[in-house]
Amino acid sequence: MISFKGFEPTGSSPIYLQIIKHIKVSAVSGDAANGDELPSRRSLSAMLGINPNTVQKAYRLLEDEGIISTVPGAKSILDISPEKLASIKIELLQSTALSAVKSMIEMHITKDDAFRVMEELWDKEEKGESK
Questions:
Q1: What average pLDDT does the structure give for the chain?
Q2: pLDDT tens, 53-93?
Q3: Can you give the pLDDT at residue 72?
Q4: In whole angstroms, what is the distance from residue 40 CA to residue 83 CA?
Q5: DSSP code of residue 98
Q6: φ and ψ at residue 77, rounded to 5 degrees
Q7: CA-CA distance, 110 to 119, in Å (whole number)?
Q8: Does domain 15-80 have CATH number 1.10.10.10?
Q9: What are the distances in angstroms from CA 96 to CA 37, 39, 89, 100, 109?
């Protein structure tokens, strides 16, 4: 079962988009595998304290994207091809990178400084030296 433990809607992004992102991140990170069940629409809405229609919208959009499948009267499962998974990984990377780039430009950080710091942080993270 795909876990929503610790998931808390935040920010100005609509909750249904946050649910979609959570499921995509779970798939890309390996926390969720093909065939894993998603919580039912009712149980997830109760767990998060949100309207069931919000969960329904998220699941419908995930179905439209080819990320989950649902058999009427049965549970929804993660049903994602390797190609789609690779595409989502790039999509999430671009979104995260764009946010960071915009912030750095606002702070007048040069590209060279940004790359230098990114490389230092990357190396520390790989060595397990991050705080």
A1: 94
A2: 999 999 999 999 999 999 887 789 999 999 999 999 999 99
A3: 80
A4: 26
A5: H
A6: -130, 155
A7: 14
A8: yes
A9: 27, 27, 11, 6, 17
**Residue 62, both tokens:** 């995930």
Report, in angstroms and rounded to the nearest whole number, the Rg of the chain calculated over CA atoms: 18
Where does residue 32 rank: exposed (0-12), middle (13-18), buried (19+ CB within 10 A)? buried
In the chain, at which residue ranges do the beta strands (DSSP E only) sit?
68-70, 76-78
Place of tokens 């999430």: 92
Percent of the chain with pLDDT over 70: 99
Crossing angle of helices 82-106 and 15-29, rounded to 10°: 120
d(CA 31, CA 42): 22
In this structure, the number of other CB atoms found within 10 A of the CB of residue 52 comes to 14
Compute the distance between CA of residue 21 and CA of residue 124 in angstroms, rounded to an integer.
27
Domain ranges of the chain: 15-80, 83-127
Query: Strand, helix or coil at 76?
Result: strand
Confidence of residue 131 (pLDDT cuts 50, 70, 90): low
Contact between 48 and 38 under an 8 Å Cβ cutoff? The reply is no
